[in-house]
Amino acid sequence: MAKKSIGVGIIGFGTVGTGTAKTLIENAAVIKQRTGLDITLKKIADLDTTRDRGVKLPAGVLINDAKALINDPEIDIVVELMGGIHPAKEFMLQAIKNGKHVVTANKALLATEGNELFAEARSKSVEIGFEAAVAGGIPIIKVLREGLIANNILAVYGIINGTSNYILTKMTYEKVEFADALKEAQALGYAEADPTFDVEGIDTAHKLTILSSLAYGIELSYNSVYKEGITRLTAQDIELASELGYKVKLLAIAKASDGKIEMRVHPTMVPHEYLISKVDGVFNAVFVEGDAVGSTLYYGRGAGDMPTGSAVVADIVDIARNIASGSECRVPGIAAGSSGMKIKSIEDIESMYYFRFSALDEPGVLSKISGILGSRNISIASVIQRGRSKDGGSVPLVVLTHRAREKDVISAVKEIDGLPIVVDKTLFIRVEGRES
């Protein structure tokens, strides 16, 4: 007889844990109506069992012992929402070894330790649900695992860190510098006291690791993702990009090219007319291009208790349905290197580029810089030179290029920065979209 009652246990009763518990309890009737299943929250384990989270729990549900939850025979699905690597990894492994299915929102854990976790899950014939690990309430994992399963994925572009997107939005529309925009993001609770993971692209790289594995059938390869944050950007760069017809976004990019995969996170100039350039504030968006479906865009809230809790509960329901029908592991988790595709070095990618040189206001400066660029097959598309320096100091010289190879760009910048006419380190931003 098919099992109609599914027990759930949650480890971690923070923001996402609260949203998940609230959704399971308050929407229990609608979930049962749509699935025919009784999905019951049996236990929540958290070190703090006294703080009021605004969720009314039955007596005995909230405990402080995660191991007791993992070993509870009435719990079929263990939901890990505590975050961090340890002891979250050990809790998940023990749950899997106990034959329990697991749901997690822990992108850092999956990106860095996921190959081991998914291998263990396969050996025990249990599932790991991870919809909430990328882009909050946007069902992008289901899109890649199921909705676009018949497509060869040509490219994935994502704005998948709301903190960085909020900061760049402030810099764009209010012309403030990075430090001021960051302070406001922290004051509003959008950025942590230590914002490194967000502003240096680390959080985005964790999520891109997961998306790339799903899109291209490769192992989770976080250490192969090129990572560059937004801390060097200035309000001037944002304004100059706008003059050239672009907005600056922190993009996660995965592309299949030349039989290899590009995996990179960095500030990117995107044409104003592109839909993804219009995604502002704390919102997320993921653009996916498939050979059959063409261009698709998925937009929504990438964080928060209820959007992320919604994604967690979606995984719980999917797994509960599979348990009830006896079809566990119907959809594989991670492809574990099935495609055999290799990852392209950042030096081998090709892109258009924006350069901002800080050069002395002297005759012949542009010709010297353009000569070095030309010697590396870097062709100039347009130039912006800001007014004269009254004291003979430096002025910004902006160059937008046609497509060039990263290796050549790095070599050219190194030589240009060594010129006596260049007084500060050159900043360059990669440009995606239309050829200038």
Q: Could you explain how this protein is built, in words?
A:
The chain is α/β, with parallel strands linked by helices and 436 residues long. It has 3 domains: 5-137 and 305-325, Rossmann fold; 140-301, 2-Layer Sandwich (Dihydrodipicolinate Reductase, domain 2), CATH 3.30.360; 346-431, Alpha-Beta Plaits (2-Layer Sandwich), CATH 3.30.70.260. 36% of the residues lie in helices and 25% in strands. It contains 14 helices and 18 strands. It has helices at 15-26, 28-35, 66-70, 88-97, 107-124, 140-147, 162-174, 178-187, 196-199, 202-216, 235-243, 305-325, 365-375, 406-417; strands at 5-11, 38-45, 62-63, 77-80, 101-104, 128-129, 153-159, 226-227, 246-257, 260-271, 283-290, 294-301, 342-343, 350-360, 380-385, 394-401, 404-405, 427-431. Strands 7, 8, 9, 10, 11, 12, 13, 14, 15, 16, 17 and 18 form a 12-stranded mixed sheet that branches. It has a 6-stranded parallel sheet with strand order 3-2-1-4-5-6, sandwiched between helices. β9 and β10 (260-271) form a beta hairpin. α1 (15-26) packs across α12, α4 packs parallel to α5 and α5 (107-124) packs parallel to α10. The N and C termini lie far apart (64 Å).
